[in-house]
Amino acid sequence: MRLDSADDCAEPMTHDRGCSLSLSSPPMQDPKEPEPLWLEVDRALEDWLGPEDAALRSATASAKRAEMPAIAVAPAQGRTLQVLARAISARRILEIGTLAGYSAIWLARALPADGRLVTLEIDPERALVARENLARAGLSERSEVVVGPAADSLEALIRAKIAPFDMIFIDADKRNCPLYLKHSLALARTGSLIVVDNAISRGRLIDPSTGDPDANGLRAMMELVSHHPRLEAACVQTVGAKGYDGFLIATVVEERIGAAGR
Ligand code: SAH
Ligand code: DHB
Ligand code: MG
């Protein structure tokens, strides 16, 4: 069954860790669409925590003008990334998947003036727009948009023995998440934070029947995380303007607690 079709939601669903799940009634009509209440709460949170400023709004507008898909993180999610970066006093951040630079602005703003954000984007036109948006936000000095397939850019960074990143935000093609996670480990240090966007993807994470390579990539990533001795991970399910999703949040450790017994 497919989770995003409402008609067969009553069927139990199995996923490849052997558990089964029945969706409670009433089912969500379309988990991609935000519930009105989630949107209202997101707006209230923006009022309390601080609305987007002109640079962020203009990044969103430029993405729309360039007919990019509306898949940047929501404001509340950008804020979450920023708080996480601040919490670990990140000085060097790597982002995989730039689009128009919306999340890059949130992340780069968490950096000190001499900090550095490197963000990887396969599409040269998107990279151009992102550079303009980062410039408009006054963040050109501390950011760099690297054009090319992320796997190649990551390998080049590893070969160049670039200084480790304190935080890595993975948000490109989901089918390559396992590869990006492995490369991220090579570019991190003990204590680095790795965050992966769209980890839940409205439940597709646990539904192998879609045959969707992106959902399969997310699941393969979770398998990697579940066995990896140097990752201590949590997954936060989220709702809001972008529907039902979540962040995988992992710290790089010397040795995982209880890893010996696994
Ligand atoms: N982080 C952005 C959204 C990124 S959307 C934000 O929240 O504002 C995902 C981006 O990854 C797209 O712009 C897409 O072009 C890019 N992408 C897809 N496959 C890629 C690849 N193999 N290498 C690098 N970037 C890729
Ligand atoms: C979608 C959302 C994302 O955040 C992303 O990175 C890719 C796709 C989506 O809603 O389809
Ligand atoms: Mg995303």
What is the number of helices? 8
What's the Cα radius of gyration? 18 Å
Q: What is the strand arrangement across the widest sheet?
A: 5-4-3-6-7-9-8
% residues in beta strands: 15-25%
Structural class call reads: alpha/beta
Report a brief summary of the structure.
This protein is 36% helix and 19% strand. The protein has helices spanning 36-49, 54-65, 75-87, 102-108, 124-136, 150-159, 177-186, 213-227; strands spanning 13-14, 20-21, 92-96, 116-121, 143-147, 165-170, 188-196, 231-238, 245-252. The strands form 2 sheets. It has a 7-stranded mixed sheet with strand order 5-4-3-6-7-9-8, with helices on both faces.
Brief descriptors of the model:
binds 3,4-dihydroxybenzoic acid, disordered N terminus, seven-stranded mixed β-sheet, 262 residues, binds S-adenosyl-L-homocysteine, 9 strands, alpha/beta, 8 helices, binds magnesium ion
